[in-house]
């Protein structure tokens, strides 16, 4: 895992990766603004009471709520953007560090879309479920990173692994290294919440997981199915 982190940082200023980071920055920023507008619209449905004391409080609380909720659900935005940038990040990382790997398998649009949507729905539901736990700050502060670390580690690994392995083989590999993948998910959750850094988190997290996956399989891709091999059902 330490090697995966160092390799990710070592390539952070690669011109090819910087171009992908620029796209990540724009996509993430636009998504964050859209999320803030959506949350603001929802809070605006709170009609004024006509009370000179309460209405200003609602306005202030609404503004703070927009920022807080947009930040809280920012992990969902990061995960969605990461799915869109997986292939260009993977090509750039593998060209430098794993040149002997065979071409990735053709997962198919249906399979990739199903995996991404299933994960995003699960991530939203889990974060909505965890939200009330923040009424007890110590509980929320523990539940939030643990839940998201588990989900992000699993999803980033699945996206990376299924580029080269059928779903059943990717699942077995994930179960074998679930401890390391969970801790990698915690790291991804942490960098996804750091101001400014989180705008580049989709690229950094994907590169990090690619290196982690690279440590689980032979450097020459031995044992991987050839491109175009029959796909297993998820």
TrEMBL record:
The chain crosses the membrane at residues 20-43, 63-86, 115-135, 141-157, 181-210. Its main location: membrane. The keyword Transmembrane applies. Keywords: Membrane, Transmembrane, Transmembrane helix. InterPro entries: CysZ/EI24. It is a multi-pass membrane protein. The keyword DNA repair does not apply. It is found in: Membrane. This is Uncharacterized protein involved in cysteine biosynthesis.
